[in-house]
């Protein structure tokens, strides 16, 4: 299955006023899998537009409730575990190549509504950014560590570290 392409994707690290990051608990898994908003880039769509669209589709957060802080300097890639290749995403992809964006959340918790028409999360919460790698599914752990490393300067600036 290594001949399958990677799915182009955009991801959002959404940072609240307290320097905590949004995570949602996925609905489509029996394990406790939390992740940041992310999703496919549509044909003809740029990564930033996709990131803002995905954020709205998955969290209900409107574009005027966020401000862009940073874009990761490059793309990150992960492979699906062998048991999911050929099953996830209708068998079209072997994993994802992701472009990540760090946004500041300007709204209030009441502006988050995961009960969207594209519902992907059963629950959500704000967490310390350093807790991300232990909450994500194991096959995405290295990717999340890379995203954290890419945004570490901005995260440190936001919480005084």
Structure description:
- Belongs to the Nudix hydrolase family. RppH subfamily.
- Its EC number is 3.6.1.-.
- It is an enzyme of class 3 (hydrolase).
- Its cofactor is Mn(2+); Mg(2+); a divalent metal cation.
- The protein is of the alpha+beta class.
- 22% of the residues lie in helices and 30% in strands.
- It contains 3 helices and 8 strands.
- The protein has helices spanning 47-59, 132-135, 141-159; strands at residues 6-15, 21-26, 34-35, 38-40, 66-71, 76-79, 95-105, 121-127.
- The strands form 2 sheets. Strands 1, 4, 5, 6 and 7 form a 5-stranded mixed beta sheet that branches.
- A hairpin with a 7-residue loop joins β2 and β3 (34-35).
- The longest helix has 19 residues, at 141-159.
- The protein is globular and about 40 Å long.
Which secondary-structure class do the elements indicate?
Answer: alpha+beta
- Computed CA radius of gyration, to the nearest angstrom: 15 Å
Largest sheet: 5 strands, mixed
Strand-residue proportion: 25-35%
Task: Give keywords.
161 residues, 8 strands, alpha+beta, 5-stranded mixed β-sheet, 30% strand, 3 helices, globular, single chain, 3-stranded antiparallel β-sheet
Task: Please describe the topology of this protein.
Elements: E1 6-15, E2 21-26, E3 34-35, E4 38-40, H1 47-59, E5 66-71, E6 76-79, E7 95-105, E8 121-127, H2 132-135, H3 141-159
Parallel strand pairs: 1-7
Antiparallel strand pairs: 1-4, 2-3, 2-8, 5-7, 6-7
EC number: 3.6.1.-
GO molecular function, one term: hydrolase activity
Function: Accelerates the degradation of transcripts by removing pyrophosphate from the 5'-end of triphosphorylated RNA, leading to a more labile monophosphorylated state that can stimulate subsequent ribonuclease cleavage.
